[in-house]
From TrEMBL, chain A:
SUPFAM superfamilies hit by this protein: MetI-like
Entry keyword Metal-binding: no
InterPro entries attached to this UniProt entry: MetI-like, MetI-like_sf, Phosphate_PstA
Domain of life: Bacteria
Protein name as catalogued: Phosphate transport system permease protein PstA
TrEMBL record, chain B:
Keyword entries, A-Z: Cell membrane, Membrane, Phosphate transport, Transmembrane, Transmembrane helix, Transport
Protein name per Swiss-Prot or TrEMBL: Phosphate transport system permease protein
Ranges of residues in domain ABC transmembrane type-1: 86-296
Origin species: Periweissella ghanensis
Subcellular location field: Cell membrane
Entry function: Part of the binding-protein-dependent transport system for phosphate; probably responsible for the translocation of the substrate across the membrane.
Gene3D superfamilies: MetI-like (1.10.3720.10)
Superkingdom: Bacteria
Protein family membership: Belongs to the binding-protein-dependent transport system permease family. CysTW subfamily.
Amino acid sequence: MNAKISNKIATAVLYLIAGLVVLLLAGLLGFILVSGVPHLSWHFLTSPSLAFQAGGGIEFQLFNSIYLLFITMLISFPIALGAGIYLNEYAKQNMFTTIIRTAIEILSSLPSVVVGLFGFLLIVVKLQLGFSILSGAIALTIFNLPLLTRSVEGSLKSIPDLQREAGSALGLSKWETVIHVIFPAALPSIVTGIVLSAGRVFGEAAALIYTAGQSAPALDFTDWNPFDATSPLNLMRPAETLAVHIWKINSEGIQPDAAQVSAGASAVLIIAVLIFNISARWIGKALYKRLTSAR
Amino acid sequence: MDQIRESLLKTSIATKRERFGRSITMAALILIAVIVVSIFYFIASKGLSTFFVDKINVWEFLSGKTWNPGTTDAHGKQEVGALPMIVGSFLITVLSAIIATPFAIGTAVFMTEISPKHGARILQPVIELLVGIPSVVYGFIGLTVIVPLQRHIFGGSGFGVLAGTVVLFVMILPTVTSMTVDTLRSVPQYYRESALAIGATRWQAIYKVILRAATPGILTAIVFGMARAFGEALAVQMVVGNAPILPTNLTSPAATLTSILTQGIGNTVMGSMQNDVLWTLALILLFMSLVFNIIIRVIGKKGELK
């Protein structure tokens, strides 16, 4: 076949494939938003879910998702930061580093349901924390750690060695250089990494169904004492999140309006992911501008 | 003299901080490694008790065709054959990867070689957004769109291998595409220039040079997508039908390792045989994710540019 003709055919085919994929992806997003957004209302977001009747909302699930995300980040960020700093700044090329890198890679490829089951076995059953926010947050931390560590490491790696040499030349120790020079310089991209991983954590369900539980007991939003049973801040209460809620009402639920509630909840999840994606970039850029003299 | 001597020989504050920082970051790293080891230890010790405590034959477990823990067959043996789930998982994974691959490669080539401008401005953000969509949302769409569609076209319940495959195809497509795009972008620019300089058309350059150079990376992307599909639990569980029988055709209900696992763990008693066999399924999942990991490593090693 003539090379020019085959070039044209191939280009046309590639256009076709790309067009189909765009249609598919746009249709997907459009479907979620079109079927979900009409169900969104202040009432939907701020009223508790109903198990047997139509008209329930997602108030507690939404709060649980956000609170769980916050606790997860609180636990996982320091660990990921430490591990990332060690890997990029201190680790030498030896057996120990290779083994740890392999372990992190394996952890990142584990199915989230396996992480959830591990959490169930160790935290819920063996450590007797029960189905609770804390158990869920630990499971999500395990799920989140490898990616966050890698993202922190990548951010630190992108800082030129010139900065480290400058630190040493000023007589700073390695640790001081890392804390006062490298970390601030890498902060914008670290923050971007955190927000992006937050989007992933926000929508995770498989790791949570047997750790944070599948029920959302009523919360009293006037009681902010973390040790009260109905307080929203209580760490030891079971907490069904939005993503778990969608799964639950579609596979086991008996609400008459399960489809509408899940459509609305899906739209909330998608919008949240969208916000995380956009704000990740925006916050990163804004921080970069603030911390450096770049315009 | 002694004072100077002492101040020079004493560990400085900076050194102390250095040691502190070094050990605390190392502790964080070791914590991650400990978590990985304990995941393997706990799941394996639970999963293997099917064979050691409940005395179920490994081979019979892996090749048995009926899954009905708690009941015994005519020979007095437990009906715990995991083959239907193993077949279901592999079938759905492989099928969805086969469908996703041409679309992912085509889109990625379009984004990097044909129309980088549109690729970067329109496709890239959409794909990044779709990578982040929670899997339950894919499951929900499958349940409200794909399942009724399958029921309408092929009859039956609508739940089954086909619905699971379609959902997973849509789910891994963005992941595989964005990884393929990264690989294609990392092919050095002078490969393209030299191909075009010796008179190749754009398609010849793509087909004979760029895709060849990017093959290891593309394979990695596909295996990565398969690993994700294999381990996906809730989206599949919502559409596959959860009937632990060997799938005879694409539209009959089936089950995967993950779907039986998520369904069963909450309904069985810890420590019972019915519960142990589920942990064995989890162990198979864990093992397979290791296998996928090793495949990715082997591809990466072979594909290193020399």
